[in-house]
Request: fold
Amino acid sequence: MELIKSVAEMAELGRKWRAENKRVGLVPTMGYLHEGHLELAKQAVAENDLTVISIFVNPIQFGANEDLDVYPRDLEGDLAKAESVGVKYAFAPEAADMYPTGFATTMDVAGVTQTLCGASRKGHFQGVCVVLSKLFNLVQPYRAYFGQKDGQQLAVVRKLAQDLNMPVEICGVPIVREADGLAKSSRNVYLDEECRKQALVLSQSLQVAKRLYDEGERDAGLIKAAVQAHIETAPLAQIEYVELVDAVTMQPVLKPEKPAMLALAVRFKTTRLIDNIILG
Ligand code: AMP
Reply:
């Protein structure tokens, strides 16, 4: 495993691989790796000549009152885990190297960022788009891998890459879950025992939606109400949103005809969890 810490060194390697016609897979992460991340990495290793995992807690995608300072980190553990699935390069830059004094560029993908997490986390997707653009320019990947866990992020990066003709194929990977259904997340470590137990209502409520949809229900209001009612059986759950949106545009739908994403964000005490399911 080669650890690259410097932005200049990453740029040099990216150029070299491109000149050698190497097909590079990129897996962008914020570290504290779990099996969800490793599923992305495994797919990248299987499909490309070499794989780079980036490990960077991107400060500009966090809001002022969010968990940037306490976000869990374990670089050594991450390197061992990534290596165990065949990743040969890890890029873990310092924030000051990615965003030197005077950094001034912002990016805004309209429409697709205006709902769900984009509505409640102002500036979040602008920060995501800037860091991904930088990573794509540095690593020059042939393919980049993203989890369906962050369904809106996947839709945003697809739109970004398409609109700007970025020479990278965006690959989506299904959500990896714990045995009991909770979507794996680095933030799950924040959950105390009580919250961990109650957080099960999230994946269960998505199954409620799926069952209704499979039975032929197409009234978004009714599906959302059933999901909400199930989440509310957990006393600690504080719903931020439950939405049914078009799977590509992320705009709310009243009656799902094309594939739609039932997405939710729920707080358990101070921990904010997201989950989703594609219907249709
Ligand atoms: P993060 O480190 O949380 O920014 O996640 C890095 C990448 O891993 C993103 O593309 C996530 O969507 C993906 N990811 C995180 N958790 C999961 C999961 N449980 N299943 C699949 N992909 C995931």
Q: What stands out?
A: Residues 29-30, 36-37, 39-40, 146-147, 149-150, 173, 175-176, 183-186 surround adenosine monophosphate (CB under 6 Å).
